[in-house]
Amino acid sequence: MSAARIGVFICKCGGEISNTIDLGSLKEHVKKIPNVVYVEEHDFLCFNEGQEALKKAIREHRLNRIVIAACSPRLHEITFRRILSEEGVNPCMLEIVSIREQCAWPYSDNPSKATEKAKNMVKAAILRVKTLEEIGEVTVPAKLSVLVVGGGIAGITAALKLADYGFQVYLVEKEATLGGKGLQLGTVFPTEDCGVCMVPYKLERHRKCLFKYVELVLTNPRTKIFTKSIVEHVEGYLGNFKVIVRKNP
Length: 249
Fold this sequence. Notes:
This protein is 33% helix and 25% strand. Helix 6 links the parallel strand 5 and strand 6. Helix 1 runs parallel beside helix 5 and helix 2 crosses helix 3. By secondary structure, the chain is α/β, with parallel strands linked by helices. The chain folds into two domains: 124 residues, Rossmann fold; 103 residues, 3-Layer(bba) Sandwich (FAD/NAD(P)-binding domain), CATH 3.50.50. It starts with 5 loop residues before the first strand and ends with a strand.
């Protein structure tokens, strides 16, 4: 594998980050770390302009590892991975540091502490990205089945909706009957309807008794019901879980 050429991109996040963290000090700190060949800050890396700047820097500086210092990876990790892939860089060669949620926001009243923590987090990400190895994509078959735990109003509704989408649904309920807490209610606010009445399903215009929905889920060919049962063990991975359900006498 070729030598690491790391690019560090710092997002101002429209002031959410730059109003607290001293980005100038952060940049100077990052530039001194070995293998960092390019450092840039941008108002919004997630916007089109920021994405284009990232692509341009990867091409012009032959970057093969990227560190993004911005918001939580839950928000834009897929976007940044796609950009790396489009520019011929393995999308696994990416580290995202959440300096907004973990530095700027919690230390908004202490900029120096926020800046110091950001320096440490970004440095750690740089050291980690140097050790990453390329990983290829693997396609695995996924089973179109879903386990729903709990046979109350929410569980019944989820099971019926998923069955409508074509999934095989396994509904596990620890009690002897479906219905959950709804069976224990008299009337409910604000309509004063019977507690076991449910909101309209699909395009139905009127509320129906919960027992009607129990009948629907019991008779649906795509649903299998396990009452007086509990989930005892789960193993596997996304698209291919194995579950052990214990049925009580």
